[in-house]
Fold Nucleoside ABC transporter membrane protein.
Amino acid sequence: MDTLLTLATLAAAIRLAIPVAVAALGELISERAGVLNLGLEGTMLFGALAGYLATIASGTPWLGLGGGLLAGAACGGVLALLMVVVRADQIVTGLAFTLFAGSATTYLFEQSYTLGQAPPRIPSLSMAPLVVIVLVVLAGVWFLLTRTTAGLVLSAAGEAPEAVDALGYRIPRVRTLATVAGSALAGLAGAMLVCGPLGLFVQNVTAGRGWVALALVVFARWRPGRAVAGALLFGLCDAAQLRLQGTATEIPYEAFLALPYVVTLLALMVRARRSGTPAALAVPFVRGGT
């Protein structure tokens, strides 16, 4: 127990929670508008690769974060075109995009280096500026959703799109902007993962963190502060399992690897009973439709 309750464990928990928190805030924006973006994991992968390559090209991780942000916005544009404009099934589209992203990022990464060549490490940011970014994003999302007209329209688009349309707002535009903004944050989250203390891109570097972020939005009942708190819980469990793997025990290490995901699922099961799911989530909007 003394091994777990240390400042090093807390620091590791915060570091591991950072990309999950930013991705969850991005997903929260799109879901509040009525768009279920299951392509979150894939968007994080594209953002991570873009951040890595941009950092190598520029020599500064700050431009790497910008590259991840832009890559995420581009992914959001593609997803919005398919899910909002074309009105393709949001669940199928998101899953297909994530599968595509896993293969595409692996291919692009492998094409950047010859066989046997070790990919270089990149300059990385310390944890302090990354924490500041999370706090700024949290404050911005909270202010947008609770203190602005745009935020009220966005939330209403996920609850009663017909009423919003009757007031003269274009639901496809609102949902497209929300999807692009949410995906941009997901891309930023991926870039923060590789441009932070990790300093390296590897195949499937996100390791399911996008799926955790999706679960945390439900856990948080679509509230920004609770989403960040849930990400910290996941980071704490992840840091704990890393510590426990280094202790003498007969428990298989796979059990420790599953610990943060199991805790997240259990928390989700408890919170989902009181879920405040947006009424029009994943429901395509058709003007004049029934």
User: Anything to note?
Assistant: The chain has a mean pLDDT of 87. Residues 18-204 form one domain.
